[in-house]
């Protein structure tokens, strides 16, 4: 997306602002489907937690995607967007049996990741098929906060507890129609990922009525020039061959599932913010913007890198800046970054803002959450309004204080 268009959108809708490029979303979706084109039954379920705007969900529905959800609210958003229950999978962690029951009653595919809930659900609903999330004890994420396949992870049922799972299934006579894993986000080494798939294949052989195997996702996208990313094409070639071999051994054509989120929407997103102040100290030049970690928390929470460029002065002489926000505590988006000369009033653009940016935004410091814009078929659409002061007060109950 070019600087001129982004600048015009900032002028039209204000700042800060999230902008999403539908063409990039579509191309990323097609990239995965093409990589696994030789698999007879392939199903992508977009991970709603990455970006849950209902217009984004509608775009994925148009692409024939399913969705992966982690809360009943995400399930309800999916239904509101027009997804059929059978195209929604519910993969929560640590939620109550009551929430799982509510979702099951909507006809959504349930994915269970702990023995306690598995046993309770099987006792009450033996005729509702479930998927079981396995922890393969392989850590493939790029940051310890997003690596979820290790032995001490709260996610999934340990592969060492498979005999326990089988005992519960036998005792309750419940139906298991899927096996699932998710090792973590930002996968770099596909051989590590493939090693985890072998564990999943071995586990799948323990259950004779499967309909699908869900390999999760966590595919890495590039964050800066020269950055490495998951080689989807190579993974597609290797895993497709192995999956088809397994289906032949299993004696049944299963569905191969993935649940990509960041891979599909991250690069499609841009976050725009105006520079309020350029401040010089003894050793640093700060560019302070009209936003903070209330709108883009990933650099502070995950040490995530977001490329920052000055779209108001792209040809300016490059200098070094620390880009910071207006939150009243440490709020640094990037330290000592080489950026075209920044002046007060310039617009800075943060790349890779399509995933886990608005969805993790807050009203910290009583700031408003920004607007969201989708560019679709060459036209820009406002898909979420900027919040107002009334939104801050909306659910507050004001009492008389004498």
UniProtKB/TrEMBL annotation:
GO terms for molecular function: diaminopimelate decarboxylase activity. The modification N6-(pyridoxal phosphate)lysine is found at residue 49. NCBIfam families: lysA. Keywords: Amino-acid biosynthesis, Decarboxylase, Lyase, Lysine biosynthesis, Pyridoxal phosphate. Residues 18-354 form the Orn/DAP/Arg decarboxylase 2 C-terminal domain. Belongs to the Orn/Lys/Arg decarboxylase class-II family. LysA subfamily. Homodimer. It comes from Lutibacter aestuarii. Substrate binds at residues 298, 302, 329, 356. Specifically catalyzes the decarboxylation of meso-diaminopimelate (meso-DAP) to L-lysine. Its cofactor is pyridoxal 5'-phosphate. Residues 24-266 form the Orn/DAP/Arg decarboxylase 2 N-terminal domain. Pfam families: Orn_Arg_deC_N, Orn_DAP_Arg_deC. The gene is lysA. Its EC number is 4.1.1.20. This is Diaminopimelate decarboxylase. Pathway: Amino-acid biosynthesis; L-lysine biosynthesis via DAP pathway; L-lysine from DL-2,6-diaminopimelate: step 1/1. It comes from the Bacteria. Pyridoxal 5'-phosphate binds at residues 218, 356. It catalyses: meso-2,6-diaminopimelate + H(+) = L-lysine + CO2. It is an enzyme of class 4 (lyase).
């Amino acid at each position: 997306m070019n600087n001129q268009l982004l600048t015009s959108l900032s002028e039209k809708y204000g700042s800060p602002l999230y902008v999403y490029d539908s063409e990039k979303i579509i191309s990323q979706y097609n990239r995965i489907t093409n990589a696994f084109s030789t698999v007879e039954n392939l199903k992508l379920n977009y991970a709603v937690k990455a970006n849950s705007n209902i217009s984004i969900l509608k775009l994925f529905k148009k692409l024939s995607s399913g969705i992966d959800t982690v809360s009943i609210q995400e399930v309800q958003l999916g239904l509101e967007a027009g997804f059929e229950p059978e195209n929604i999978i519910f993969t929560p962690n640590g939620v109550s049996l009551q929430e799982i029951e509510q979702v099951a009653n909507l006809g959504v595919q349930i994915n269970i990741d702990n023995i306690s809930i598995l046993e309770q659900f099987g006792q009450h609903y033996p005729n509702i098929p479930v998927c079981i999330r396995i922890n393969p004890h392989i850590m493939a994420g790029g940051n310890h906060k997003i690596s979820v396949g290790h032995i001490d992870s709260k996610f999934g049922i340990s592969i060492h507890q498979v005999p326990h799972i089988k005992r519960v299934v036998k005792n309750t006579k419940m139906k298991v129609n899927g096996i699932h894993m998710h090792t973590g986000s930002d996968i770099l080494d596909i051989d590590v990922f493939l090693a985890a798939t072998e564990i999943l294949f071995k586990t799948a052989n323990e259950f004779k009525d499967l309909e699908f195997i869900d390999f999760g996702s966590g595919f890495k996208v590039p964050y800066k020039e020269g950055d490495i990313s998951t080689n989807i094409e190579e993974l597609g070639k290797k895993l497709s061959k192995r999956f088809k071999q397994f289906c032949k051994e299993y004696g049944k054509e299963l569905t191969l599932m993935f649940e990509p989120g960041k891979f599909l929407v991250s690069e499609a997103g841009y976050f725009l913010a105006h520079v309020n102040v350029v401040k010089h100290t003894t050793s640093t030049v700060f560019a302070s913007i009209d936003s903070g970690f209330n709108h883009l928390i990933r650099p502070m929470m995950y040490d995530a890198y977001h490329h920052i460029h000055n779209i108001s002065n792209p040809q300016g002489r490059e200098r070094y800046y620390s880009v910071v926000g207006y939150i009243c505590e440490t709020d640094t988006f990037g330290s000592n970054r080489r950026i075209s000369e920044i002046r007060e009033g310039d617009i800075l653009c943060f790349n890779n803002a399509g995933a886990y940016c608005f969805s993790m935004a807050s009203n910290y410091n009583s700031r408003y959450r920004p607007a969201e814009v989708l560019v679709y078929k060459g036209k820009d659409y406002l898909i979420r309004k900027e919040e107002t002061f009334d939104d801050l007060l909306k659910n507050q109950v004001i009492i008389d204080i004498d």
